[in-house]
Amino acid sequence: MANSIVVNNLCVKRDGNPIILDLSFEIRKGSIAGILGPSGSGKTTIFRAIVGVQEITSGKITVLGKPAGSKDLRNRIGYLTQSASIYADLTVSENLRYFSKILGTSEISVDEIIDLVDLGKNIKQLASTLSGGERARLALATALLGKPDVIILDEPTVGLDPLLRIELWKVFRLLGEQGKTLLLSSHSMDEADLCDSLVLLREGKILAQGSPAQLKSETGETQMESVFISLVKKP
């Protein structure tokens, strides 16, 4: 199966300090991949590099066969940042239709996405009055406008209660079944088992990568948190 994202020997420095150190990994088309690691490990920097808004020091990134940041990729990548890109003084419908006009998507696409993220009952509600889970789903909806092939999600479930996480993961899995490639970050190891593949990160370096089952087998651990700890302590 073809890879949607290929990262080769990525290095990023900021003010002369290394942030990302010689990272290489591949994300299979139609899969849900996770980059997991503690805060400050470089997850957001990697995502920005993949989207094409982060200056890299060296290395190469291709997305859907094209160099990261290529003009042809603008409508093929959806990017959900940690800070929700929504306007608090607009309704759910107004937010989505505003971003839809910028991207040049159809009204039908907006309606489909509202149904997908289950915000139909909230379409006339101001974003400022939405619950945390509803705001998360609205932010996700904006990233899905234009029906991108690759969806980058930076900490999409942070701050949400377990039930809301489950609901969002149902949407993620449905998108994967539709052939979309999802790459998400988290510092929560309990979400690792929900991914098809993982890149475990610490201080800008890859500790390990593979499927959850592979990583558990290699370390002899049964929980992903224990897998991570085992890898950190490995000489």
Strand content: 25-35%
Q: How widely separated are the two ends? A: 34 Å
- Kindly identify the CATH topology of the largest domain: Rossmann fold
The overall average pLDDT, rounded, is: 90
Q: If strands are numbered along the chain, what order do they take across the biggest sheet?
A: 6-7-8-3-9-10
Number of β-strand runs: 10
Number of DSSP helical runs: 7
Structural class: alpha/beta
Which architecture of the largest domain per CATH? 3-Layer(aba) Sandwich
Q: Tell me about the biggest sheet?
A: 6 strands, mixed
Q: What is the assigned CATH homologous superfamily of the largest domain?
A: P-loop containing nucleotide triphosphate hydrolases
Cα shape: globular
The percent of residues in helical segments reads 25-40%
Compute the number of structural domains.
2
Name the poorly predicted regions.
none
Q: What pattern of helices and strands is seen along the backbone?
A: EEEHEEEHHHEHEEEHH
Gyration radius, rounded? 18 Å
Classified by CATH, the class of the largest domain is Alpha Beta
